[in-house]
Amino acid sequence: MTRPPPIVRFERLYLTSFALGLLIWALTWEQLSTRLAADPRTAAFGWMLAAALALNVAIALFQWYAVARRGVAWVRWVVVLLTTLHLLGLLPGLFIAPLAPPTLLGLVRVVLEVTAAVQLFAPAARDWFGLDGTGNDGLDGEQEELA
Which percentage of the chain shows pLDDT scores above 70? Predict the structure, then answer.
């Protein structure tokens, strides 16, 4: 099946957001590792920064593949949930003056993510997810598998 335009737009926006997220990680890596090393309670956990990055990359790539390449309907809800969490995590930084460049990039990233997530609910995307007109939202797991 040919991917509909909203899914293609999702993929482009989502992968751009993903790349921007990697840039934010690169810009804040030293600050985060310094903060971990400065506190005696967290100094021994410097390895967790790399583990968190690896986990973030794995989750993002899974979401991209499951939604944009396989059409797994329930994963679009995971995209919505994690996008909401990114937005909520960004909000405190928006009220600190002056805004740091990573915060501004984070804002752009969240806007890209929200725009990408909206594409998943466009009428043209319903067939891609195997959703019919019966009101099935893809949460029951009967319509698709990630095999």
Answer: 89
